[in-house]
Amino acid sequence: MDKLKALLAQDFLGKAPLLAGELVKKLSLRGESIASAESCTAGLGAAHIAAIPGASMVLWGSFVCYGVESKHKMLGIPEDAIKAHGPVSRPIALAMAEAALEKSGASWAFSITGLAGPAADAYGSPVGTVWVGIACKKNHIASYAVGFLIEGSRNDVRESAAAIAFNEILKCIEKEK
Asked: E strands within 27-152?
């Protein structure tokens, strides 16, 4: 298993609306758009973005791929890759973000796949495991996925995962300057 960064849900709880607002503002100023591919958050990230006035200028939409079959059918993630790595893994988070970017035509895409609970998965991933994938159309920004082990309730994990995804994209935008 890839190394996960340990976080307390409180580190990001309540920050998603603020980070979504900052993201909408920055993407609007840049004339860029964003798409998401969300599993354990079931569209929560896109909902936070949509709650911001002006979101229609930047939000392409969201692929809600909650189950394994939907990751394959909606995004084209090979079933054998999901079986080999597990649906909650770096390779799948990366593939989800890249597929969302390709299928949407957006400037940016993020993915969130994880285990909010109450049970662990058959691949040995503990509850609270979240992988966030980031993909961008710009050639000089390489796609990547980062994993976290978030301690907190089911909803705390989901809320924190959305905030983490926004934070990761904002860090990429800052690096471009």
From this structure: 34-38, 59-64, 108-114, 129-136, 144-151
